[in-house]
Amino acid sequence: MKQIQDKNKKTHRKGLSAGQSSQKKSQEKGIHSAQKLVQLYERETEQKHRKSKHSNESNSRSTLEDILDQELTTVNNNRTAKMGRPGNNKQSHKQEKKHHQKKDADKNEERRIINREGSKTDNRVDYRASNSAEYKAGNRSQISKSTRKQDSSNVSSSKKQMCGYLKNCGGCRLQQGSYEEQLKNKQTEVNQLISKFCKVEPIIGMKDPYHYRNKVHAVFDHDRKGNPISGIYQEGSHRVIAIDSCIIHNKKADEIIVAIRGLLKSFKIKTYDEDTGYGLLRHVLVRSGFQTGEIMVVLVVSSPIFPSKNNFVKALRKLHPEITTIVLNVNDKKTSMVLGEREQTIYGKGYIEDVLCGRVFRISPKSFYQINLVQTDILYNKAIEFAKLSGEETILDAYCGIGTIGIIASDHVKRVIGVELNGDAVRDAKTNARRNQVTNVEFYQQDAGEFMSQLAGQKESIDVVFLDPPRAGSDEKFLNSLCTLNPEKVVYVSCNPVTLERDLNYLTKKGYKAVRAVPVDMFPWTEHVETCCLLKRM
Length: 538
Description:
One of its GO terms (molecular function) is rRNA (uridine-C5-)-methyltransferase activity. The chain is α/β, with parallel strands linked by helices. It has helices at 31-43, 64-82, 89-112, 132-137, 166-169, 179-194, 251-263, 309-319, 373-387, 404-409, 423-435, 448-457, 476-485, 497-508, and strands at 3-4, 12-13, 51-52, 62-63, 127-128, 141-142, 199-200, 215-222, 228-233, 240-242, 281-288, 295-301, 325-330, 342-347, 352-356, 359-363, 394-398, 415-420, 441-445, 464-467, 489-494, 512-520, 530-537.
């Protein structure tokens, strides 16, 4: 076999073998051409028999794979000739082909990004309890499809989707129509559930319903090849959907998460494996101050030993100098909970501050703080408007969190009492009161229902109760304590109209009347909606 070797030119070969007449037309193609075909082949793996024009003696067509076979054989023989020993073309080609088939399989597996299945953690299903017995037993039945939930699998393919992750994620379900359409649907839902109790005012939507979440959580995992990935759990499972950005996430938070993922290999940090319990990085939580621009990064790790943490902080802040604090949160338990009990501040002050309704609030990693500050400002002002405060009232802020509603209302009342079960939130609430120089407010760490029962036993007079419970709503014990306390007004801020309907059913049978309600769209592109409702004692 004739070879022409030249240091300043590419190596060519005149022929391959006596029986391969179709290869004679490609004898001037070298290594560069073969590499281009390899890249093309990798991009076209799903089109296994893509047709390509190739001129030969019989004017027949060969597939892209046949051309690749020829070029790979050419390359391997050239390499063998350079090394001064005969090459086994057939064997070499089989090895190359096997290598690329494996590479393609890995890529397809990586695209699926379905790593492991864990326990079901779908918290998006809504329930109602129809009577007192169901309250006690904790049994709930799913609400009918006519008033709740659209399956993302039924989204019309004729509508353009803004997000490429919709099918697997299941979070932003309402992308099949315009924002105006989803507002109408949410209005209809609240009307169907609440209008039998009182008039429902028009829903308050957002002017710019994108990238509103000031709290972004990413779970970290790895693909089959061990490469780190970050994203969210697929709805109803612990399958990780790898994402780089989301239409409702704070943009800067998404960028920081991607930057953290990019640093892991250089610092030899392994992502946590839920099945084996090995690995260090489990989650990343990014919280942003909407008004202040302060950013907190929480690294949730399985061990307090974080290698080269000072250098990691320097590298991360070099990429994102806008980060104001970084906290290590240690979660060494096999649990579906994101945050653990232990924390260590490795940069900054360990918390951020933000401004809401003219007040400054301190936010720690575990503190509850509304995720949409634009709409929260509207919602809380609407709640205070509903209460029609004269300045002489004593109010109770139940489920007070970091004290937002109570502190905002403090200028309009004589006394504020806040109660919250979360100790971290109560500490932040007290700090927030001092920070805002509010002297007519006091906060207690206790179960809200038990606390109200104690107040009633002490014959404490409460004029207005503000309550902002979690999505599951209030339980019968809490509502019974509320009725025993017997305030003149109740302002119920609900993030779930289904449980609001259930609780209104209970309260209206205990001497209260719903007067007015208004939905506020706190969660655009999702099926959730906030509702503020005023009740008065009859």
